[in-house]
Design a protein that fits this description.
376 residues, mainly alpha, 16 helices, globular
């Protein structure tokens, strides 16, 4: 099995000409009877060895984390008594980078690369946060979050989160420069969003309605991540380079950042949605579906699926179908999504062809002949 990235690497190494690569992609596209651009490919598993290595790496990372925690407890370098130690997360981050030097840089394995990137970013974030908390204890005394007034505690907590996330942004940038794993950009964007949220919390403090303020802010950040993803997508409308994979992970990050705040602010998460709110949720899901079709990304539909299932379930309960409400909900949504999947390309064509040329020209192609593109 050969991935899009393998073909790009072959072009870069001179083993395959750009014209030959286009001919190969076109042939596969014709064999599948569906335009390759609409398949939304991304590299995850190239073989069972990816799963094998990922399991082994997870076991090793767990072991070094445990050892780091034990050393930290032995020398008293922990938060509180027997609390987490920065040595544990630092050991995980360092080990993840070391393993990536072989399995990512040399073997170019997809799933282990994703796992190691997440372990590295999480390890850097945790190490930074724990060290900053230890610093806060030294400056403000024991239990700074409990002994300080609520305003000060919130500010300290927000600043620590923002600084730790900023360090993580820097670390993921270096990781991207070294390994070019597509999910790295999304991890860095998530850390950057965390910086903004931390600074917001530190600035406004424990005011009434802070949860709604934060949700609205996360929604704005999600829209920003979505636009950032579209920038990557528009640079590769044929989806034949690594840029498309980067955009995929950014869309996967943006979708819950947009969907969760919207549905939470509508009151759907409190379990007391009215018929009007349920209909609003369904209308919003239809709008998300049209957007997903236009940009050729299914992440928006998947992220909002739980909310629309709940809304439909509530509507069926209201009209009296209590015993079969779950079955009816699953029947309607499952059938609709399968039909959409079966006629995805036709539905996309009906939408994209009606958009202004200036906008449709930046969207993924509708299956026209692929043109040679340099590997990104």
């Amino acid at each position: 099995m050969y991935s899009q990235q393998d073909i790009d690497d072959a072009i870069a190494a001179g083993a395959l000409s750009p014209d030959a690569a286009v001919a190969l992609r076109s042939h596969v596209e014709r064999q599948r009877t569906t335009p390759a651009v609409d398949e939304e490919h991304f590299r995850l598993i190239t073989g069972f060895n990816d799963i094998f290595v990922s399991i082994a790496a997870a076991i090793l990372l767990f072991a070094v984390g445990w050892i780091g925690q034990s050393i930290g407890e032995a020398i008293g370098f922990t938060l509180d008594f027997n609390g987490p130690s920065p040595l544990a997360s630092a050991a995980v981050a360092a080990t993840a980078w070391g393993l990536a030097e072989f399995f990512t840089a040399r073997r170019r394995m997809a799933l282990p690369s994703i796992l190691l990137l997440l372990a590295f970013a999480g390890g850097v974030l945790a190490t930074s946060g724990f060290l900053l908390m230890l610093g806060a204890v030294e400056v403000l005394g024991p239990d700074p979050f409990d002994n300080a007034d609520e305003r000060t505690a919130t500010a300290v907590f927000g600043v620590i989160g923002a600084v730790a996330a900023a360090i993580t942004v820097t670390a993921t940038w270096f990781h991207w420069r070294r390994f070019r794993v597509p999910i790295t950009i999304a991890a860095g964007a998530a850390a950057a969003a965390a910086v903004a949220v931390g600074l917001l919390v530190a600035a406004i403090g424990p005011v009434d309605g802070i949860d709604r303020i934060v949700l609205g802010f996360v929604l704005a950040l999600g829209i920003g991540v979505f636009l950032f993803a579209m920038r990557w997508d528009s640079s590769d409308p044929g989806r034949v380079t690594r840029r498309s994979d980067v955009a995929f992970w950014l869309h996967l990050l943006a979708a819950p950042m947009i969907v969760h705040p919207v549905f939470t602010l509508l009151g759907l998460n409190d379990g007391s949605a009215s018929i009007g709110e349920g209909l609003a949720v369904i209308a919003l899901y239809v709008a998300l579906g049209l957007t997903a079709l236009a940009i050729d990304r299914r992440a928006l539909l998947v992220s909002a699926l739980a909310y629309v299932l709940f809304a439909l379930n509530r509507l069926f309960e209201t009209v009296g179908a209590v015993e079969l409400n779950v079955a009816f909900t699953a029947l309607v949504i499952g059938s609709a999504l399968l039909l959409l999947s079966a006629f995805w390309h036709q539905a996309r064509a009906a939408i994209v062809t009606r958009l202004p040329a200036a906008l449709s020209g930046k969207l993924p192609t509708l299956g026209e002949r692929l043109t040679p593109r340099p590997a990104a």
